[in-house]
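User: I'm designing a mutation panel for COMM domain-containing protein and want to avoid disrupting the core. Could you give me a predicted structure to guide residue selection? Please restate the sequence first so the numbering is unambiguous.

Assistant: Good idea. Sequence first, for numbering, then the predicted structure tokens:
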Amino acid sequence: MLLLFTAEQTRYLSAFSKLELSDDVLTAFAALVEQHICNVGEEQTEALRSFSEENEIQLATLRLLLEAFVFTLTEAIKYNLSAEDYEQSLKPVVHVDVLITALQNIYESNKERIRNLFISKRLKVPQFNDLRWRMEVAIASRANPIGSDIVPYFLLELETQAPKDKQIRVLQCDLPNMKHLTDELERALQEAQSAHARRMQRLFNNKVQ
């Protein structure tokens, strides 16, 4: 599998082929890319400003170039590309062998660490723990004397596990909604046991391992 880039991304990725920069400068830029992707959320203003001034590249332009090359690494990690496929994805758009080799080395050296970093920073969705329910029936009331229609309702206690704590919510539903809920859960269970779902689960596990 090879990565595909938009016209705008290609414009930034190919920019270095139009600049007359030494191999040392290109390697230094690759180091900036590595620092950026391995230190998510940390500011690099001083390093970028220094590189910008030394090589006469506008700071805003340099940031766009940096983000474009970081994107190639994050997409390669997302799709679990081999180092060879990553290299072949860059060649048609980057056109600078020194930079391609440096980025390929960054990808090979940091692939697992960056993947684990992304997984740890991924939005944590509460996970299902348990669901308990009971049925209650009002035998009689002033508004519903004995002999009138008896309408049951259900109390549900839903327990979920968030990243830092456990949450319990109490819900109420009537018989039609309870039947719809059980039908949907049965359908979801059957789908989860299907060959397609197991195949997708294996694919997902391979990507995050």
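For picking mutation sites, this is relevant: The chain is about 60% helix and 15% strand. The first strand starts at residue 127 and ends at 137.
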